[in-house]
Amino acid sequence: MPGTELYGAEERQEINDVLETGMFFRYNHDAQRNNIWKAREFEAEVCKLVGAKYAHAVSSGSTAVQCALAAAGIGAGDEVIVPPFTYIATVEAVLIAGAIPVFAEVDETLCLSAEGIRKALTPNTKAICLVHMCGQMADMDSIMEVVKEHNLILVEDAGQAMAASYKGVSTGLWGVAGAYSYDFFKIATAAEGGVMVTNDERIYKLADSYSDHGHDHVGNNRGMEQHPVIGFNFRISELHAAIGKVQTQRVPYVREKNNEYKKYLMEKLGQVPGVSFATIPDPSGDSATFLNLLLPDTETAGKVVAELNAAGVGGFNYWYTNMYHFINQWDHLKEMRTAARLGVEKFGAPQDYANLDIPKSQEVIGRLISFGIRVTWTYAEIDTLIEKVSAAVQKVQQVEA
Ligand SMILES: *Cc1c(COP(=O)(O)O)cnc(C)c1O
């Protein structure tokens, strides 16, 4: 799955270009940089890959979500619907914006469902921060219906699903703005980094300024120009962008291999009684970074994971394992343990985070076992995985029967 599996000479060459000039800053210094603009080239590669009009590279996927929320005008006191199954960065970004996360149910797509969103709406709902989980995509037709019906702002955290799409439109491009992560574990990495994408020039310009203390970057004369908004520093360095550029070029190959292996795994493991899979709303748009198994119930899934771990196989269940991707593990959030005071403490939330009523999410995430798909696998390794998973599932169910 991770881009780091395919790290090689091209990355070293791109990094070396930057080391030769010593120009690590993405703006200005034209004379010294020898016409090397890695951040710009990285952004152009992302636009090409996902079909976005604008891409803006920043320091992380988390700050890309922050930029997307800010540029979309989401701030103090706004209710934002989020899933309870995501990397916690999504929820943190909403909290740091001064906004109020409101948790809605996910379903077998592992993403927010339209039904879940409808139930979580209040008169104060302003936006949805939709997360495309485990390399797959949400069911966009039904979600766009709710978005339009209730005139909501849609922001997408596609941190785990860059290069995934639904009916030909990339994740991240369905709403006002979207975010991708380029951390060490994603389909492509910049060592650390993230990218915000949008098709709206106004949103792009806002994010561009917001991520660099409000500078408008007009005329490549940073520092002397206008400052349309107050911002902060979420800049990416030229070194990180250099890696991100090559890694983005590798994505079509990685995605193709991932899909080939995932299809094979699903075909074989689909024959094992008790095994089904997370719903993929558009299988042709899967980035296929994860194989997502659903077992009959949480208890069985937990036992199967224990068997797999004993057999040295790296599948994990987010509900049992402290993977930090599910609300059950977010005690600091439930108890609102914060460093600085957050907007939610002042404005209040329409739900009690410590006692959320989310039976569907509990049931689905409890049954889920995910496997990272590795682009460097051989078929012999995949067959061994299939054997071990089948054996574990069968053993646990025989004991139960
Ligand atoms: C990885 C991830 C992030 C955070 O990205 P970083 O680059 O690590 O900051 C945000 N959201 C989701 C869904 C992620 O998987």
Automatic annotation (TrEMBL):
GO terms for molecular function: pyridoxal phosphate binding; transaminase activity. The active site is at K186 (proton acceptor). Keywords: Aminotransferase, Pyridoxal phosphate, Transferase. Pfam families: DegT_DnrJ_EryC1. The keyword Secreted does not apply. The modification N6-(pyridoxal phosphate)lysine is found at K186. SUPFAM superfamilies: PLP-dependent transferases (SSF53383). The keyword Iron-sulfur does not apply. GO terms for biological process: polysaccharide biosynthetic process. Belongs to the DegT/DnrJ/EryC1 family. This is L-glutamine--2-deoxy-scyllo-inosose aminotransferase KanB. The lineage of its organism: Bacteria, Pseudomonadati, Bacteroidota, Cytophagia, Cytophagales.
